[in-house]
């Protein structure tokens, strides 16, 4: 599989009265065609900022200060306003965190669909737009006659499916999902992810999936990147990230969630709280909270490197535990 | 539909409230209201004729033999059928005197609403879009400064400079008295010419709405559906109007309803200073002559106009906000 | 006090606030220190009528031969007092009605809100005119009371909305669960969180009251023997000051009225900017735009360099 998106050394700064705060620091990763990549991390770690930056939708006072975002080989940071406008939704679309508030409350679903078609010149009449919108609604199991309703007339789960239908309207190559299910209950959550998975299989787009729910992510994604305080600290196939975490933070994050399958285990959280981005230390950002930190970790910042044997991890002392081998051992022996 | 009826019911109660004030105020004054009126009238140099006394008695239904609640019912009845008493200054039915002024006030206030709300809405949208630029600072600070000038001061200064001193605008009347009212270009242009300076004063005083629209618009621009609009590739102009402004005008309509009383209050001062023959001018003359029936009639007329404006605002909201409309189904 | 600290920071960092505060301060000093700036009594006939400004009478004299400057300064005292008394009265009414409605909710809220809306749709200026007309002789203090009695609904509504939103925050629920008494909570939990909205409401009503006093005075409802800016304008209008070109008689009180109102409005505008988080966030926009330009320039330079490098490589 070849790369659809290649992000190189991306830095995003927030302008504040006290100076710039770097919310995303030197992040590189790629998304292959047809792949589902997950980004996980605590809130405020920069994962949503990356999602918005991929469509250059980051709102002021956020500013992309360095790096490149190659989409099919073209750097979208070089796009003119008009090129950017045409790129948005046609090539990359997005399902927002808050289905409740991302639909315009005073316009019907029909006219919000039509806005998409009109902006990208794909239909010539309103009727044609309505026809296509109805087909899309059917894909996400919403009765087509609801097309002429207003957003407030839908339930939360239905609204999220409407947004997904809109996201697929132009058959984009990449679908970004920014915590799409946090506001929904667990049953609806699964239904929606299942639907997206089926659609992905059918249409063959790539997905960037962002959440802080690691167990959900492991089931849904092909590969997972773990972020901490604006840095990408580990990228690995999703089966490995819980089973064979190498970065102590990934290890801690994996232990912070109950597994859906398997026996009851003791949950171990991560001590301390996320880093204050106004005061970034010299060494590893996670050193303060890390059970495995050494003197080197406090002075020398580890870089994300691809190790033949280990894969991508940014740590001086990667862990070497494999849960999959230890599956039968009691939990307490792990520490 | 229930929404509309609830509002109508509320307006009816509010009107009753104003009528009640009018009914009880003279009775709360010490002594017999009619003779105390006559005393005041004599004091302020008003003429006391038998008509005056008859008008007062007819208006207040005052009588010691009838219980208060019957007097109140009688008063209500006469108000409802348009018998608002007789002006002691003009010796004409109050409703006729008020009617003459109402047309000019409606012209002034209606024109003001049209011009001012169009102008300030667009300016507000523009500066919210361009927030943080020098144009934003200039327009916002400018509109705060201009709109906080008291109406009396604004009107006096404009009148002194442009009507009295420079003579660019007329110093009074709604149209050239030499012309006969008719739908001719000559007459209409004369009306517009006489309307211009009072209108400019009112529009300047109403510039504060720019701030209201600006902050509504800024609030809307932070909403997720705006970001989604951009994400969809919708053109900036369309996001600005169809996504941002379309939602930002809804609170503007509510604030219009809240401020319409103050707008009519402002027109009163403007009309007095520019000698514009609207309701304000009528009121001023009534005040000078202590023409109580006319003063009370003015309060009722103003209440009716404010309530109508509120009802129009309700209907507008009803039409523009689907959440309100479809909640009824 | 956190509120006082942020107030101080606001005046120091925000030019609009400091300009506004200086304007208000200057007017206060001029009016309340009037004997320092003028030797004349405000109501004494000290010169020939309608004298143009001269060294003796800096802003001329009135039709009655009174000194306009001393009238303006002494009159300002009354006007400002009326503004503050009426403003205080309005605030009191608005706070009692607004906070009780928002805090207690239920039928208390229903009744108070209904009453508030009712008074709000009765146009306040005509109502004031009717009241003043029946009371006939109205001293400045009575005018202040009339303004207070008719103008509180707007503030009550704003305060009610704010109380409601604070009341539903977690820390209030927490205090309630911990068994704090309702009255104590009102004063120690709800009120401190409303300081900025109360301050801006108070300033708003003071502006409104000063303007309204001028309006009522101008229409001729003020006591003609008292001296206020409104009564000065009334006298000027009645003696045809405009027609005979005695501009100083109009200009002096007008400038004072306008400056005071503008000064207070600028302070109010700055309070809004500081206390409304969405507007506050916008203040960063100016800085953001500068930084954005820097980035754009850097990028343009990088592209130029990138463009020239291959040429050098060829060479």
TrEMBL record, chain A:
Record keywords: ATP-binding, Nucleotide-binding, Transport
Pfam families: ABC_tran (PF00005), oligo_HPY (PF08352)
GO molecular function, one term: ATP hydrolysis activity
InterPro entries in UniProt: AAA+_ATPase, ABC_transporter-like_ATP-bd, ABC_transporter-like_CS, Oligopep_ABC_C, P-loop_NTPase
GO biological process: peptide transport; transmembrane transport
Ranges of residues in domain ABC transporter: 5-254
SMART domains referenced in this protein's UniProt entry, alphabetically: AAA
SUPFAM superfamilies in alphabetical order: P-loop containing nucleoside triphosphate hydrolases (SSF52540)
NCBIfam families in UniProt: oligo_HPY
Protein name per UniProt: ABC transporter ATP-binding protein
Native species: Alginatibacterium sediminis
The organism's taxonomic lineage, starting at the top: Bacteria, Pseudomonadati, Pseudomonadota, Gammaproteobacteria, Alteromonadales
UniProtKB/TrEMBL annotation, chain B:
Domain ABC transmembrane type-1, first and last residues per copy: 102-313
InterPro entries per the UniProt record, alphabetical: MetI-like, MetI-like_sf
Residue stretches in coiled coil: none
GO biological process: transmembrane transport
Gene3D superfamilies linked: MetI-like
Subcellular compartments: Cell membrane
Highest taxon of source: Bacteria
Assigned keywords, A-Z: Membrane, Transmembrane, Transmembrane helix, Transport
One Gene Ontology CC term in the entry: plasma membrane
Transmembrane regions listed in the UniProt entry: 7-25, 104-129, 141-162, 182-207, 248-274, 294-320
Pfam families linked to this entry: BPD_transp_1
UniProt membrane topology term: Multi-pass membrane protein
Extent of the signal sequence: none
Similarity field: Belongs to the binding-protein-dependent transport system permease family.
Name of the protein: ABC transporter permease
Source organism of the structure: Alginatibacterium sediminis
UniProtKB/TrEMBL annotation, chain C:
Domain called ABC transmembrane type-1: residue spans: 80-268
Record's bilayer topology term: Multi-pass membrane protein
Highest taxon of source: Bacteria
UniProt main location, coarse: membrane
Assigned keywords, A-Z: Cell membrane, Membrane, Transmembrane, Transmembrane helix, Transport
Subcellular location: Cell membrane
InterPro entries (UniProt xref): BP-dependent_transpt_permease, MetI-like, MetI-like_sf
CDD domains on file: TM_PBP2
GO molecular function, one term: dipeptide transmembrane transporter activity
Signal peptide residue numbers: none
Transmembrane segments: 80-104, 111-135, 141-159, 186-210, 216-234, 246-271
Keyword set includes Disulfide bond: no
Keyword Transmembrane: yes
Cellular component aspect of the GO annotation: plasma membrane
Family that this chain belongs to: Belongs to the binding-protein-dependent transport system permease family.
PANTHER family, alphabetized: D,D-DIPEPTIDE TRANSPORT SYSTEM PERMEASE PROTEIN DDPC-RELATED, OLIGOPEPTIDE TRANSPORT SYSTEM PERMEASE PROTEIN APPC
Protein name: ABC transporter permease
Higher taxonomy: Bacteria, Pseudomonadati, Pseudomonadota, Gammaproteobacteria, Alteromonadales
């Amino acid at each position: 599989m070849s790369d659809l998106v290649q992000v190189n050394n991306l830095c995003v700064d927030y302008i504040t009265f006290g100076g710039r705060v770097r919310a995303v620091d030197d992040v590189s990763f790629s998304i292959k065609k047809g792949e589902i990549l997950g980004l996980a991390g605590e809130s405020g770690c920069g994962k949503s900022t990356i999602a918005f930056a991929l469509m250059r939708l980051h709102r002021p006072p956020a500013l992309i200060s360095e790096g490149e975002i190659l989409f099919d080989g073209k750097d979208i940071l070089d796009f003119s306003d008009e090129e950017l406008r045409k790129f948005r939704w046609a090539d990359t679309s997005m399902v927002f965190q808050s289905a409740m508030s991302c639909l315009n409350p005073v316009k019907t679903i029909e006219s919000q669909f039509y806005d998409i078609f009109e902006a990208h010149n794909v239909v010539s009449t309103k009727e044609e737009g309505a026809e296509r919108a109805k087909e899309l609604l059917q894909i996400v199991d919403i009765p087509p006659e609801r097309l002429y309703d207003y957003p407030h007339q839908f339930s939360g789960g239905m609204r999220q499916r409407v947004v997904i239908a809109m996201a697929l309207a132009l058959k984009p190559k990449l679908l970004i999902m920014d915590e799409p299910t946090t506001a929904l209950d667990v049953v609806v959550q699964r239904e929606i992810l299942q639907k997206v998975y089926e659609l992905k299989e059918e249409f063959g787009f790539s997905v960037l999936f962002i959440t802080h729910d690691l167990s959900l992510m492991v089931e849904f994604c092909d590969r997972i990147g773990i972020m901490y305080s604006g840095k990408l600290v580990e990228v690995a196939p999703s089966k490995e990230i819980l089973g064979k975490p190498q970065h102590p933070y990934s290890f801690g994050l994996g232990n912070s969630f109950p597994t859906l399958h398997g026996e009851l285990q003791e949950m171990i959280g991560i001590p301390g709280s996320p880093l204050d981005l106004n005061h970034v230390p010299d060494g590893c950002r996670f050193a303060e909270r890390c059970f495995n930190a050494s003197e080197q970790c406090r002075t020398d910042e580890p870089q994300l490197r691809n190790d033949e044997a280990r894969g991508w991890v940014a740590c001086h002392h990667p862990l070497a535990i494999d849960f999959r081998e230890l599956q039968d051992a009691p939990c307490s022996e792990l520490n | 539909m229930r929404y509309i009826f609830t509002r109508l019911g509320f307006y009816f109660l509010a009107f009753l409230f104003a009528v009640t004030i009018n009914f009880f105020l003279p009775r709360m004054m010490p002594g017999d209201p009619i003779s105390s009126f006559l005393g005041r009238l004599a004091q302020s140099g008003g003429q006391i004729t038998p008509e005056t006394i008859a008008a007062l008695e007819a208006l207040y239904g005052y009588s010691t033999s009838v219980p208060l609640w019957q007097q109140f019912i009688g008063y209500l009845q006469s108000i409802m059928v348009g018998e608002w008493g007789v002006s002691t200054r003009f010796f004409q039915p109050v409703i006729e005197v008020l009617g003459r002024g109402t047309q000019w006030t409606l012209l002034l206030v209606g024109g003001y609403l049209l011009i001012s709300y169009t102008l300030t809405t667009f300016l507000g949208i523009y500066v919210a879009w361009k927030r943080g630029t020098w144009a934003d600072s200039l327009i916002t600070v400018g509109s705060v400064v201009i709109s906080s000038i008291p109406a009396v001061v604004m009107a006096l200064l404009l009148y002194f400079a442009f009507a009295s001193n420079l003579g660019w605008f007329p110093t009074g009347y709604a149209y050239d008295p030499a012309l006969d009212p008719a739908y001719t270009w000559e007459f209409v242009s004369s009306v517009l010419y006489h309307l211009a300076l009072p209108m400019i004063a009112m529009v300047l005083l109403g510039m504060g709405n720019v701030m209201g629209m600006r902050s509504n618009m800024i609030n809307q621009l932070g909403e997720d559906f705006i970001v989604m609009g951009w994400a969809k590739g919708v053109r900036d102009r369309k996001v600005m109007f169809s996504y941002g402004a379309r939602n930002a005008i809804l609170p503007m309509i509510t604030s219009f309803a809240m401020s319409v009383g103050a707008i009519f209050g402002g027109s009163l001062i403007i009309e007095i200073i520019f000698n514009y023959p609207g309701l304000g001018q009528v009121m001023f003359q009534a005040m000078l002559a202590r023409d109580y029936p006319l003063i009370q009639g003015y309060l009722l007329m103003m209440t009716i106009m404010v309530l109508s404006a509120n009802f129009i605002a309700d209907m507008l909201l009803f039409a523009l906000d689907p959440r309100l409309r479809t909640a009824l189904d | 006090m956190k509120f006082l600290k942020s107030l101080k920071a606001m005046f120091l960092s925000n030019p609009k606030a400091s300009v506004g505060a200086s304007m208000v301060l200057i007017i206060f000093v001029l009016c309340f220190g009037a004997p320092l700036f003028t030797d004349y009594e405000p109501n004494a006939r000290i010169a020939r009528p309608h004298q143009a400004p001269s060294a003796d009478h800096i802003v001329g004299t009135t039709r009655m031969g009174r000194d306009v400057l001393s009238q303006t300064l002494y009159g300002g005292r009354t006007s400002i007092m009326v503004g503050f008394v009426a403003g205080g009265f309005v605030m009191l009414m608005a706070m009692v009605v607004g906070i009780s409605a928002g805090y207690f909710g239920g039928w208390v809220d229903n009744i108070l809100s209904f009453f508030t809306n009712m008074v709000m749709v009765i146009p306040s200026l005509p109502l004031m005119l009717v009241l003043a007309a029946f009371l006939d002789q109205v001293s400045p203090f009575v005018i202040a009371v009339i303004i207070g009695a008719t103008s509180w609904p707007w503030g009550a509504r704003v305060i009610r909305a704010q109380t409601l939103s604070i009341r539903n925050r977690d820390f209030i629920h927490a205090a309630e669960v911990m068994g704090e008494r309702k009255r104590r909570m009102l004063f120690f939990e709800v009120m401190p969180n409303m300081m900025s909205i109360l301050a801006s409401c108070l300033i708003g009503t003071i502006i409104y009251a000063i303007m309204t006093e001028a309006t009522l005075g101008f229409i001729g409802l003020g006591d003609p023997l008292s001296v206020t800016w409104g009564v000065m304008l009334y006298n000027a209008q009645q003696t045809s000051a405009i027609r005979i070109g005695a501009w100083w008689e109009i200009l002096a009180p007008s400038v004072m009225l306008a400056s005071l109102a503008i000064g207070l409005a600028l302070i109010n505008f700055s309070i809004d900017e500081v206390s409304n988080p969405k507007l506050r966030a916008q203040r960063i926009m100016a800085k953001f735009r500068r930084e954005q330009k820097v980035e754009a320039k850097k990028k343009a330079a990088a592209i130029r360099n990138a463009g020239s490098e291959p040429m050098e490589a060829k060479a």
